[in-house]
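COURSE: Structural Biology Practicum
ASSIGNMENT: Worksheet 4, Part C
STUDENT ID: 0417
INSTRUCTIONS: Below are two proteins. For each, the amino acid sequence is given first, followed by its structure token string. Answer the questions at the end about the second protein only.

PROTEIN I
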Amino acid sequence: MDKIVKERIKEFLEYLNIGQNAFEAKVGWSNGYINNTKNISADKLKSVANEYPQLSLEWLITGNGEMIKREVDIDYKEKYYNLLEEQNETRSELNSLNARHIDIMNELHDAKIQNLELMKEIEQLKSNKRHAVDPALSSYPPQRDVDIVTKK
């Protein structure tokens, strides 16, 4: 069976027009692995599937079906990874927006405190004005301190 799998791998390499060494390097196998192994393990086949998603594992293992998957099958995996990437970007943007929101809320809080302080100061100034004596109503001429000089 594995010899047949190895032959199918070689057929796939011919289809892609790539060398066996380049293929082995891309999937993380040692140089000459295909020629020197008796059994191709499931984890080795998984590395092939990860690097070459267009290759049908059903065809590679059993010989049934087409060598190359339909585009629809490939598109789902690609779309899934694209959605994951978009989700991560959206989370990052959301985190940035949340941080900005917190900054704005802190600025608003500080502005409210400053506004209250200014309102208190205005009320204090109004109160001081009411208690101040109107110069027009004060006696004329204004009273001055007079030094009393005594003569000897």
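PROTEIN II
(use this one for the questions)
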Amino acid sequence: MEPVKRRRVSADPFVVYPNKGTTCYIGVVLQMLSAAGCTAYVPAELAEYLRTGRGNCADIFNRVVKPHQQHLRGVHGDPHEAFLAIVDACAGLERRFGGSLSSVVHCLEHRGALDLPRTVPFTALVTAISERKAASTGKLIVDFFAEEKLTGVDCSTCRKQVDASKLNTLVLESIAEYWPVYINRGETNAKCSQPVTLTTGFKLPYGAVFRLLAVVVHLGKHKDSGHYVCYRKHGGRWWRVDDGTATEASEVELDSEPVRTGASLLLYRRQ
């Protein structure tokens, strides 16, 4: 692939959030919230920062997200954890993201349900990748709703531990306007850099259509170091946001190696 040529505009097309030392992981989450039009759903101090970019985002986070400061780990924090902390701290914001799942487990021996279906709300779909298997975000989303095989599950009917299957289905009326998708790139500090092809649009079996609106990319080999940038769509065009700088990008850049090996948090919008 040829080197990416970016066009710097004379004025930023939207508010950008400068890095205050080690706050890039906060800045990319704020870009997601800005892209999702969340200003009216957060406390006044954070809303003002989203509108203007004036102040210190770390200080504002420590005040606004005080009950959830364990998510804001300081140096090289995690955007997914920061995003969840903001949603937890801002009443009403959770209704803008995710939805609810109906989860049921079936015994594979007597073919009956082991319990009544449980409805579980989710803010973001959590997916995982493997070094051994190429994937696309569309495939990761489909796999999330695929039947999951379980072993060693207690069955009161069979009176023993059995193999079982778990199936998650969407509660249709719960589907929110925005769907964050988190790609877990490993449980250790060493990042799994398996390339992931970004699916810019997908359709659920239930008919809902989603389009990619933003993606957070981690640049670096280790999860507790490196740098985060955000690609977001604005005015019908793609932009690359690196701390306090926004440059015009292209959809082709979304298929570049740094994006495919570092994509960690995506935001889709329901059409």
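ANSWER KEY EXCERPT:
Q1: The chain has a mean pLDDT of 87.
Q2: The chain has six helices and 15 strands.
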